[in-house]
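Anyone up for a design puzzle?
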């Protein structure tokens, strides 16, 4: 239960951390630095507690998982949020559906209740976002929307891969290795896109620094570590419920910290989404 709570609460609140960070820190550098720091910390903790170093094959598995989850999955969300309205972003993060599809392709056919829960969850997200937020203030950038959908596919593929890949038994070592490998790929992207050559620490504002370190501690060290543990220890459709709960958490964090307004629609959407989570987690 603690791992579910960590993923639900911390990842829902990272939307605000990303919003502050991306103001003065380039998109790929945010992930590169964030996951480099988090990965090294987790690997050091794992070694301190006696975990064995990854084998060559495990490093290869961690590289593939890190690239799928972090380099392609997570960074696509951060990049897309600079061009796509937040409401569209929430709707386009279709990870639960892809998780079920990939597990289905592996021979794990979803039950009727799981499919029903996914549909109810999508309905709840639609109610939460509302038609005005979906439309945004102008025309939606089709490239950014496509990148966000593809990013959800990569994240789901990486999540399923971690369930079956040859990774270190230690959750800390496995997660740290994935972060370290993903960060190296993100640094390469930052170099290719010119972020490294044009970036200066002097340009980073205090809110961006606070958002960045929030992402390092709560988003990576706590949230992502808990998610990887869930993917390896609970049914996939249970772990996937985070994508339905996160928007609710993001709305309430925005109200608490940023002064965003709550509405009856948000209350209705919250009830629907919680109902979807109950349906999914009770489904066999």
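Challenge accepted. My sequence:
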């Amino acid at each position: 239960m603690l791992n579910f709570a960590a993923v639900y609460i911390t990842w829902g609140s990272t939307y605000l951390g990303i919003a502050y960070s991306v103001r003065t820190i380039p998109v790929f550098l945010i992930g590169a630095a964030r996951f480099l720091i988090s990965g090294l910390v987790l690997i050091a903790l794992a070694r301190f507690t006696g975990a064995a170093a990854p084998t060559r094959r495990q490093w290869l598995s961690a590289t593939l998982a890190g690239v799928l989850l972090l380099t392609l999955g997570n960074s696509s969300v951060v990049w897309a949020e600079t061009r796509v309205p937040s409401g569209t972003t929430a709707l386009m993060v279709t990870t639960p559906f892809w998780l079920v599809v990939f597990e289905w392709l592996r021979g794990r056919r979803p039950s009727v209740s799981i499919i029903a829960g996914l549909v109810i969850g999508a309905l709840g997200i639609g109610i939460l976002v509302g038609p005005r937020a979906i439309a945004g203030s102008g025309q939606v950038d089709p490239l950014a929307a496509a990148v966000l959908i593809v990013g959800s596919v990569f994240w789901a593929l990486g999540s399923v891969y971690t369930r079956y890949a040859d990774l270190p038994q230690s959750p800390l070592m496995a997660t740290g290795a994935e972060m370290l490998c993903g960060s190296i790929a993100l640094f390469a992207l930052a170099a290719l896109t010119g972020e490294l050559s044009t970036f200066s620490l002097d340009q980073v504002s205090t809110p961006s620094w606070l958002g960045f370190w929030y992402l390092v501690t709560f988003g990576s060290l706590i949230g992502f570590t808990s998610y990887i543990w869930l993917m390896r220890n609970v049914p996939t459709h249970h772990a996937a419920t985070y994508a339905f709960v996160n928007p609710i958490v993001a709305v309430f964090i925005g109200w608490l910290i940023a002064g965003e307004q709550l509405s009856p629609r948000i209350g209705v959407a919250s009830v629907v989404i919680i109902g979807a989570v109950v349906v999914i987690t009770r489904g066999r």
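A detail worth pointing out: The chain has one domain: 2-282.
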